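seq:
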Amino acid sequence: MKRKSFFAAAACALITLTALTGVSCSPSYNSIKRMQKIEEGVSNPTTKEELEEAIKKFDARAMDLALTDGQVGVWYKILATRYLDQQLYGKAFENFQKALAYYPDNANLYYYVGICAGYLANASLDFEAKGNASESFQKKQNYLRLAENAYLQALSINPKYYRSMYAIGVLYAFELNEPEKAIPHLERFLATQTKDINGMFVLARAYYMDYQFDKAVALYDRIIELKPNEEKVREAQANKKTVLDVQYSQK
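struct:
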């Protein structure tokens, strides 16, 4: 069989991404094994000499397979990102998970899994109208905890990954009602992102929820001092007043 015709006949592709890569498919593990057998003639080596010869011939093919698997992982990541850009969070979630099978130590992938899980949590409705609110609530909680685990995994891989610090701070403060867990992540976030206004607002909220009123007021004062824009300044002033009212009412 001619090499060109053999490769043209080799079927398979884990995914078809012509638009993204300009390539319609890539060889699978089984097709590569068939190529090895047909082209190299080492289907069933038995003697020591045959085994040594087979190993030499298969080494190059093993590199081809590793490169192919790596490319497939990249394709899944690209496809997931495209879905995320189009706000198709379910599809993005599935493909980021598939990419993780190839790159399990990639902090970015865990971060994006967390982002998608957060969106899916807010879409956890009782679509079959069974009136089972507890089931919908549990489904939402499962997604939120999955997001939490994904952000924590990203931070375990890269402790300086500030995007995950911010994301998990938002998750704890706004979704899981666990401000005491949000605070250390957001404090580390602002230690490097010193003028991030959104981070300041989230941390101030966490302080307020955790009854650390003085710290919340100080942070709102910091926002007012920085004067990011009129809307943010008014929001910080209003929030500061709320905190002070609650604080004085408890004295």
